[in-house]
Amino acid sequence: MRQWNTRKQMREERIAAGRGFATGKLVDPETLVDFLEAVLRPGDRVCLEGDNQKQADVLAKGLAAMDPARIHDLHMVQSGVVLPEHLDVFDSGIAKRLDFSYSGPQSARIARMLFGGKIELGAIHTYLELFARYFVDLTPQVALIAAVSADRHGNLYTGPNTEDTPTVVEATSFGSGLVIAQVGEIVDTLPRVDIPGDQVHFVLDAGRPFYVEPLFTRDPAAMTETQILTAMLAIKGLYQPYGVRRLNHGIGFNTAAIELLLPTYGEKLGLKGKICTHWALNPHPTLIPAIEAGWVEQVHCFGSEVGMEDYLAARPDIFFTGPDGSLRSNRAFSQTAGLYACDMFIGSTLQIDLAGHSSTITANRIAGFGGAPNMGSDARGRRHPSAPWLQAGAEADPDTAAPLRRGRKLVVQIGETFGEGNAPLFVEKLGALELAEKLDLDLAPIMVYADDTTHIVTEEGIANLLLCRNADEREQAIRGVAGFTEIGRGRDKAMVERLRERKIIQRPEDLGIDPLDANRNMLAARSIKDLMLASGGLYRPPSRFRNW
Amino acid sequence: MSSLHQSWYEAGARERIAALVDAGSFTEYVGPERRETSPHLGIFDLPAQFDDGIVVGAATVDGTPILIAAQEGRFMGGAFGEVHGAKLTGLLRAAKALNRDVVIAFDTGGVRLQEANAGEIAIAEIMRAVTEARIAGVRVVGLIGGRAGCYGGGGLIAGCCSTLIISEQGRISVTGPEVIETNKGVEEFDSRDRALVWRTMGGKHRTLIGGADLFVDDDAAAFRAAMLAALVRPAKAGSVRNASSVPFGRGERPGLDLATLDAEQDRLERRIARFGDAADATDIWRTLGIDDARAIPDMPSAAFATLAAQYRESADDAR
Fold this sequence. Notes:
The complex is a heterodimer.
Chain A: H1 6-19, E1 22-23, E2 26-27, H2 32-39, E3 45-48, E4 54-55, H3 57-64, E5 74-80, H4 84-92, E6 95-102, H5 107-115, E7 120-124, H6 127-134, E8 142-150, E9 156-157, H7 165-174, E10 178-186, E11 202-205, E12 211-212, H8 225-242, E13 246-249, H9 253-268, E14 278-280, H10 288-292, E15 298-300, H11 309-313, H12 331-340, E16 344-347, E17 351-352, E18 358-359, H13 372-375, H14 387-396, E19 410-414, H15 431-439, E20 455-458, E21 461-464, H16 471-479, H17 486-489, H18 493-501, E22 505-506, H19 528-534
Parallel strand pairs in A: 2-11, 3-5, 3-8, 5-6, 6-7, 8-10, 10-11, 13-14, 13-16, 14-15, 16-19, 19-20
Antiparallel strand pairs in A: 1-2, 4-12, 8-9, 17-18, 20-21, 21-22
Helix pairs in contact in A: 1-2, 3-4, 8-9
Chain B: H1 13-20, E1 27-29, E2 54-61, E3 64-71, H2 82-98, E4 102-106, H3 116-135, E5 140-144, H4 153-160, E6 163-167, H5 177-184, H6 194-201, H7 203-208, E7 214-216, H8 220-230, H9 258-275, H10 281-287, H11 301-311
Parallel strand pairs in B: 3-4, 4-5, 5-6, 6-7
Antiparallel strand pairs in B: 1-2, 2-3
Helix pairs in contact in B: 2-3, 3-4
C-alpha cells in the first residue's frame, strides 16, 4: 500500500534533526552551519531568497560555509544570483543546478562559470515565471528567507521589502517543504504579521537587518539633455496621444527623466490627471515631485527602496500600506498587475536588432531578465478594454471588426542611439544570439520579443511599429530612428521619408519639440537633495547618493 | 523649485562668468580662437580643448573693472596643465600691475597627471602670483561649488585667497577621498561614503572651521551677490571685525603682510589644539558648541547660515 505523506514525514525528520541546534524554533547563530547541514540533504531543491533588492545574506553565508562532502549537488531555484556566495556554492560543489531570473551584479562571473561548466543551467526565467514553477515542477524542499523581525512563535514581519517572501513561503510550506527565516531581531509583538508562524519552521536571529540594494534610485544630477529629449518625445508623442494612465517604468535614466518632467513639461501640456495616474512601480525617488504635485493616484510596488520608507508611510493614499503604516510590497502580485492591468511598459535596453528584438545580455554578461519581459509583453489572456489598449490594437490591425479585435499593450523601448561607453543601441546581431550559440541554449535570452515591441524612442524620433505592415517597413522604421549608428546609416532614405509621412516615424519637429528646449532646467529636481526637499525631508537618501 | 534658479554646480565655466559679471562686459584673454592647447595631452592620445579648460579675461561688476577666471570642471576634471596654469598666472600678474581685484571660479581636481611637472610648477607660480598681488593690495576672491570641487593644488591656491565663497556642494581639500582611501585604507576613509566626504570636505564644514568665509546657496545669483560683498571687504581684514559692513574704498586697502600671516598661523595652531583629536567632523561641530551636530548636513541653507554665523571659527583676522 502506498504511503501518501512521505513529504511531510521527510519534513518532520528535518525538523527533528534541526532541533538539536535550536531552542524551539530559534536557531543558535553559533551553530548555523551545523544546523544547515542537519536539515539539508544532498540534491535538495533549495530557494535561497534574494532578488534585485533584498537578500537573505546571513543564510547565504551559512550555506556557502557548509562542507561539500556532506551537502552537495543542491538545485538552487532562486530569483536573484546577486551575492558572491550565490556563486561560491557552485564553485565548491555544494550546488550543481541553477534556475534563476536575475543576476545583475554577478553577470560577468555567472557567464564565466556557465562557460566553464561549473553550473548546470536549468533556465533563465522572468520573476513571475519562476514563481509559477515553484507551484508546478520546481517546488523547493527548503526555503531560506529573510524578514525584518519575528516573534517567539515564528510569525514574521517582512516590512516594506516583503517582495518575494509570501510567494516562496506559500510554495515551500504548503508543498511540505521546510522554511527557515533570518530576521534582524526577535520581538514580543510584531508591527504586523506578514507571514503566519505556522508556515515557518525555524528562525535565525541574525542580529542585523538583511541586506537591501538601492537599485531604483537614479540621481537626477546624472541625467543628460539627450535623455531629457527622449523623455519629452515619449510624453508628447506617446503618453499624450494614447492617454496612458496605467503603466510601468523601467529603471533607466530615460524613464526617470519622464518622471521628473511630469510636473514641469507634462503640466505645460495640460496632461495632469490624463496620464500616469496608476502605476505598478517600485517607489522610485524620482517620482516624488510628480506625487507631490498631485499627478499620481495609486502605486503598487514590487519591493521598496532604501530611504523611501518614511515617505511611503506618510502617503498611504498613494501606496499600499499595512496596519502598522509601513509599505507592503509583493513582487508576484505587482508583476501580475504589470502584466494584466497596465497599458504601457517603457524601459531602456542595451541592444535592439533590425526586427525589434531587444536584449540586455551580451556575450560576456548574463544579467538575466528580472521582471521586464512580463511587463514588456502583451498579455494574451487580457479581456478588459481600455482606451490606449484598444487604440494600439486598432493601429496594429485596422481590418478586423472591433468586437473581435484584440487590444495591444504599448511596449516601448527608449534610449539614446549610442549608450554607455558609446556602444550602439542598434545592432545587426544580438549578443544574446552569440551567447545561445556558445552555450548551446534552445532559446536566445531575449528581453522583449519583436512582436511585443510597439514603439522605439531615441533622440532622433519615435518609430511606431504597430503601423508597419511588413518586415521591410519595420526594418526601415527602426533604421530611421537609429541615428548615426551603422544601422542608422544603412537606412533607405526615401523609404524613411515615406514612413515619416505616414507617421510611422515622428521626428522631434513633427511633434513640435525643439531639441534645444531639452535642458536640465526642465527637470522638477536636479539632484538627490532636490528630491529630499520635495519630499519634505521624508525621503532619506542613502549615503552613497548624497553630496552634502 | 529648482527650475527657478541657475545652479552653480551644473553651470559650465562660461555660464558662470556670464552669471557673475555685467552683461556684455567680458573680454576674454587667450580665448579658444587662439587654440593654445596643451602640448602634452596628444602624447597620450587624449583630446585637447582650445581654451585648455580655463577661461580668463576682464569684465566689470556693477561697473567696477575686475579680472576673472573660471575653470571648466568638465574638461579633464578642471585640472591644471601647462597652458591652463600659465593663463591664470598671467591674469594674476596683470591684476597686480593694474591694481585690479581678481575673481577665480575654481572647479578642479588638482594637477593634470599627464603633465604633472608642468602642472606642479604652475601651482607654485600661481600661489606666488596670488601672494604678490595680495601684498600689492589686490583682493583675490575664490568661488567654490562645482562638480570637481577644489582639490590638490587648487586647494592650496584657495588657501592663499583673500576671501572664499562656497556652497554646500563645494568641496575643498588637498588630498582627495580616493587618494586617502588608497593610501590609508577604507577603514580610515571610505571614499564611496559620500555623506562622509561632504561632511569632511564640503561647504558646510569648511565654513564652520573657517576654511571658507561666505556660505551661499547653489545658485549663480547667490554667488554673484556674495562676490559683490567680498569685493568691498578689505583686502586684508587686519584688526577689522565684521569686515563686510565696513567697505573700503579703492586705494585705502592694506595689503597682505607678515602680521596677517602670523595671525593665520596662530589660528591654525589653535585649530589643531582644539580639534586634533576629533575622529569625525560632527565631533568638531559639537566642540564648536553645536548641540545637534548630526542635523547639520540636512539643514537648509538659510538656517545653516544663521547657525554658522553664531558658532563658526572665523578666519577674518587671518585673511
